[in-house]
Inverse folding.
């Protein structure tokens, strides 16, 4: 009986701790969301109030117009979608060559691929900006998209899956006269669907969230992505408009939150691919 | 051999897209940056002359680089250890079979959904001296929150950026460590329990050793991110407060609009290459330091 009481007390203790930590972690999001859902003057008069009273969509609506958020979201959606499809295609092709074909210098080429994974964007952007400039790609969708179309990580990930496909399957197919492209399209790619899903999710998120490259290659309103465009709602000196930023933040964060709730399992699978043995 | 040559044309066709893109956008700029690093260019950066490889030393020794190096190292020290400890703490807390634990796990991973821009601007709103909720709630105890504001004070600006960064990375750390915890074989705990190990001993002698691969991975990723953080600085402080440049880290020195070397491609390239070497050195150091202790099972 006594042990039951102890166990019960422990459970209560653990739940209280869990709730406390959850509140701390969520507090910044909650506070900003609430500020966005209050109308300007009210949020100004009672910034301390964390109670969800007098909620309105006015701030978000105003931010939507003022920040041209629809346009920014469409830019981000377009760029991220094209990059995602592109990365999946280039990764499938290169991974196929590494997994199923034999050619001279294969080991060295693969090593070169892996080595590029070590080079951070922070090193290459100085020169890439010049390259984009000389191609006339500053302030253009090509400039945002093309440099991200190949992913070493993607090639590596897909190759790992392709290596699990029995070689006999490929040999049997080639005896039946099935060419490389058809085998890739009809057998190898469908077999690696879960990995492609994780790769796609990560590429989409990475492109959607990118900051450094878009900030260096774009400086007009036309091509700005949502991440860069939010900055224009940041008006610390104009107090009457300060709340617009919270509205913009809600609009910018919402699609990704929804996406992550839907794809939670793929996300965890992808994130942990490099970390846990197996 | 014959087979090798027969496969060559399709292999080339399939490799060309990736190889071409990586050559133009990763390999070429890396080589070019190394080359520019030992040149001095005029403001148009078209006319450059060779000034010798020891230019890397002079850039490294310059006050601007040294100052930003110190900011980068401080920022790494502020974010990585605390981020790791908090992430491990959250994961251990949520690694129990309790009713509704899934909700808590989702909440703890939630910050993974925030981008650099969203996370930074959330904290920008919270910390805003005149309107921010934190400034409003806590300024009786911490007057600096109101005047001049955490992000505008040379002493607190960097820790404030670090706070936003720790919060933003928490979800990622939690997910990785959680997955690591779940792959620890349960019978290890049972035998430790049978041997009379208390919960603290079980944590230090079973959990931590089995978690080392995940911890190493998170630690390398967090360190690299900390050394390369640009967005949070650009959005929160622009490298300022300007008088002391208290948050001008190496990436901001290279890419920031307010940077003194903004129009000097030679110095920028040299600094970028030095940043690359710094990241490599830190990663190598962690792999070596952890190396002997990492336990991959079997």
């Amino acid at each position: 009986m006594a042990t039951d009481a102890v166990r019960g007390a422990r459970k209560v203790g653990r739940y209280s701790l869990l709730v406390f930590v959850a509140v701390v972690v969520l507090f910044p999001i909650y506070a900003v969301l609430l500020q966005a859902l209050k109308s300007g003057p009210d949020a100004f008069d009672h910034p301390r109030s964390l109670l969800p009273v007098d909620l309105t969509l006015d701030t978000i609506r105003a931010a939507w117009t003022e920040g041209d958020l629809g346009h920014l979201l469409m830019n981000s959606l377009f760029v991220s979608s094209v990059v995602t499809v592109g990365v999946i295609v280039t990764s499938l092709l290169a991974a196929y060559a590494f997994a199923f074909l034999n050619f001279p210098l294969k080991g060295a080429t693969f090593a070169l691929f892996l080595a590029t994974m070590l080079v951070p964007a922070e090193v290459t952007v100085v020169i890439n900006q010049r390259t984009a400039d000389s191609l006339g790609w500053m302030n253009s969708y090509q400039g945002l998209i093309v440099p991200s179309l190949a992913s070493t990580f993607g090639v590596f990930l897909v190759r790992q899956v392709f290596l699990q496909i029995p070689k006999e399957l490929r040999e049997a197919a080639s005896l039946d006269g099935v060419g490389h492209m058809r085998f890739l399209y009809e057998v190898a790619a469908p077999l690696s669907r879960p990995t492609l899903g994780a790769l796609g999710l990560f590429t989409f998120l990475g492109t959607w969230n990118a900051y450094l490259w878009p900030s260096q290659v774009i400086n007009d309103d036309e091509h700005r992505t949502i991440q860069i465009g939010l900055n224009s709602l940041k008006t610390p000196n104009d107090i009457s408009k300060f709340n617009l930023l919270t509205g913009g933040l809600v609009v910018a964060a919402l699609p990704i939150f929804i996406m992550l709730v839907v794809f939670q399992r793929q996300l965890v699978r992808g994130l942990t691919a490099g970390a846990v043995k197996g | 051999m014959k087979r090798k040559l027969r496969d060559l044309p399709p292999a080339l066709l399939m490799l060309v897209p990736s190889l071409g893109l990586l050559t133009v956008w990763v390999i070429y700029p890396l080589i070019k940056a190394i080359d520019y690093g030992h040149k001095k260019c005029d403001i148009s950066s078209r006319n450059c002359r060779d000034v010798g490889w020891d230019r890397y030393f002079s850039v490294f020794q310059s006050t601007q680089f040294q100052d930003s190096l110190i900011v980068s190292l401080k920022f790494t020290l502020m974010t990585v250890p605390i981020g790791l400890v908090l992430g491990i703490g959250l994961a251990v807390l949520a690694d129990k079979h309790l009713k509704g634990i899934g909700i808590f796990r989702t909440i703890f991973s939630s910050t993974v959904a925030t981008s650099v821009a969203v996370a930074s601007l959330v904290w920008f709103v919270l910390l805003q001296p005149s309107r921010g909720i934190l400034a409003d709630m806590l300024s009786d105890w911490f007057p600096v929150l109101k005047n001049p504001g955490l992000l505008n004070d040379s002493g607190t600006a960097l820790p404030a950026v670090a706070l936003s960064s720790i919060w933003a990375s928490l979800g990622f750390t939690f997910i990785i460590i959680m997955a690591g915890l779940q792959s620890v074989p349960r019978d290890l705990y049972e035998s430790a329990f049978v041997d009379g190990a208390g919960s603290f001993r079980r944590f230090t002698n079973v959990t931590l050793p089995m978690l080392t691969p995940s911890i190493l991975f998170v630690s390398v990723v967090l360190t690299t991110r900390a050394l390369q953080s640009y967005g949070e600085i650009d959005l929160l402080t622009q490298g300022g407060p300007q008088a002391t440049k208290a948050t001008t880290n190496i990436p901001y020195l290279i890419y920031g609009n307010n940077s003194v070397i903004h129009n000097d491609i030679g110095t920028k390239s040299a600094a970028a290459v030095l940043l690359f070497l710094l990241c490599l050195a830190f990663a190598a150091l962690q792999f070596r330091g952890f190396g002997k202790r990492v336990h991959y099972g079997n």
About this structure: DSSP finds twelve helices and two strands in chain B. The domain at 53-291 of chain B is CATH 1.10.3720.10 (MetI-like fold). Residues 154 and 246 of chain B are 6 Å apart (CA to CA).
